[in-house]
């Protein structure tokens, strides 16, 4: 057994002992996270596995204040142990089950934006440190360039920058400083549950060095899709109002386009994943494919209604988890734009422009996703049971609105 696994097992055993006598105090997330990073969930030593399952069982019974440390620990253990309990899922593997509940505790669009930016900063920092240890110069340059390109989309204080701006080139040290400032909330430190969400949310299945990168990119994009779906929900409410406010509607559409644009930038890093490592990751994460993504399903179904219900994602995500809306936003939006044409053509043009921006970013995301999939898996079936890149190519041109 490795030192990290031994330390983690001891820490969880002592927490369990304390929990039998009274309130056990903070859960030892850090040593467990280190052991998971060293082994991968699928290869944890049996003793640690059992202790984690006992801890999961214990936290299920405990009362918890939503948003507090016990609440976050219970949801965290639920995700972490899901594959140990033979209940693997995309939500648990990506920890979006925990992220989603945390974001819904308050102003969801703001929380999703902040958390996704923090995870992006953590990813950039992780990748730059890894690149610094890389001995092959070409590989080091490749990884450093991809990470600093993503760092350009981040602001040290505000999270994501405006995707319309052209941020200047960044040196590695500047990128690291920017991410450090963001992750320490300008030196003040993140609140405890948020720090836990950032620092302990990589339940990797394997010890492949590229898995943290893959998992983080999925988490960030999932949050951005949820954020875009929130803005689309608001745009939908506006479009169905008795007297829709065109400027507010266009602003929600621009915010949607911005979220998808940020997600597109994250692909710079996905392209650096080694195909052989990815094959090992896929084999260890059966049952957790992105067809189960509720964020992307919600986004598509709110926009396109029943036209977004392809059999594959519908089987993976039922209508309860991501219902379709009637009329969908695209129909409601067409009606508002047509009505505006008769008395305010400038406002109608602005609305069309904002709609086009959403579609343009969506198609760009899909094109890049297909390109990355071709490069990394080639012509093999997808984990969700589709014919892989051919499935993606068939649905490439569908607009969101
Ligand atoms: C190594 C990189 C990636 C590869 C090789 C890849 C490959 C694929 C494939 C083959 C599919 C078809 C469905 C199936 O699994 O059978 C798919 C679907 C999907 N992927 Fe990826 N993907 C990658 C990264 C990502 C990332 C980072 C995200 C962000 C969350 C993502 C989100 C999705 C979504 C939402 C779908 C469902 C799309 C739909 O139904 O139209 N993928 N991916």
TrEMBL record:
<dbReference type="InterPro" id="IPR037217">
    <property type="entry name" value="Trp/Indoleamine_2_3_dOase-like"/>
</dbReference>
<protein>
    <recommendedName>
        <fullName>Tryptophan 2,3-dioxygenase</fullName>
    </recommendedName>
</protein>
<dbReference type="GO" id="GO:0020037">
    <property type="term" value="F:heme binding"/>
</dbReference>
<dbReference type="GO" id="GO:0046872">
    <property type="term" value="F:metal ion binding"/>
</dbReference>
<dbReference type="GO" id="GO:0019441">
    <property type="term" value="P:L-tryptophan catabolic process to kynurenine"/>
</dbReference>
């Amino acid at each position: 057994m490795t030192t990290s696994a031994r330390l983690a097992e001891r820490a969880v055993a002592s927490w369990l002992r304390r929990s039998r006598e009274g309130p056990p105090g903070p859960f030892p997330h850090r040593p467990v996270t280190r052991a998971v990073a060293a082994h991968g969930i699928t290869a944890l030593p049996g003793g640690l596995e059992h202790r984690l399952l006992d801890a999961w069982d214990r936290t299920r019974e405990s009362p918890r204040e939503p948003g507090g440390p016990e609440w976050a620990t219970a949801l965290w253990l639920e995700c972490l142990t899901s594959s140990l309990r033979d209940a693997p899922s995309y939500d648990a593997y990506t920890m979006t089950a925990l992220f989603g509940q945390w974001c819904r505790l308050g102003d969801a669009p703001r929380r999703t934006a902040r958390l996704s930016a923090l995870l992006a900063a953590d990813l950039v920092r992780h990748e730059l440190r890894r690149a610094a240890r890389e001995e092959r110069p070409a590989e080091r340059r490749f990884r450093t360039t991809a990470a600093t390109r993503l760092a350009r989309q981040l602001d040290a204080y505000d999270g994501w920058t405006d995707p319309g701006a052209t941020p200047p080139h960044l040196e590695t040290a500047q990128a690291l400083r920017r991410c450090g400032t963001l992750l320490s909330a300008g030196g003040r430190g993140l609140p405890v549950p948020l720090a836990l969400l950032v620092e302990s949310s990589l339940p990797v299945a394997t010890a492949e060095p590229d898995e943290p990168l893959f998992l983080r990119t999925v988490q960030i994009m999932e949050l951005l899709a949820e954020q875009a779906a929130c803005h689309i929900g608001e745009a939908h409410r506006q479009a169905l109002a008795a007297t829709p406010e065109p400027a507010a509607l266009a602003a929600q559409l621009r915010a949607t386009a911005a979220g998808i644009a940020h997600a597109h930038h994250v692909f710079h890093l996905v392209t650096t994943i080694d195909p052989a490592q990815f094959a090992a990751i896929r084999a260890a994460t059966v049952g957790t494919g992105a067809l189960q993504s509720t964020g992307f399903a919600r986004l598509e179904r709110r926009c396109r209604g029943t036209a977004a219900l392809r059999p594959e994602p519908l089987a993976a995500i039922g209508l309860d988890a991501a219902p379709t809306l009637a009329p969908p936003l695209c129909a409601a939006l067409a009606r508002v734009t047509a009505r505006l044409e008769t008395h305010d053509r400038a406002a109608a043009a602005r609305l069309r422009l904002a709609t086009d921006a959403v579609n343009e970013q969506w198609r760009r995301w899909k094109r890049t996703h297909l390109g990355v999939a071709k490069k990394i898996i080639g012509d093999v079936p997808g984990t969700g049971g589709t014919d892989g890149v051919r499935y993606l190519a068939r649905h490439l041109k569908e607009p969101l609105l």
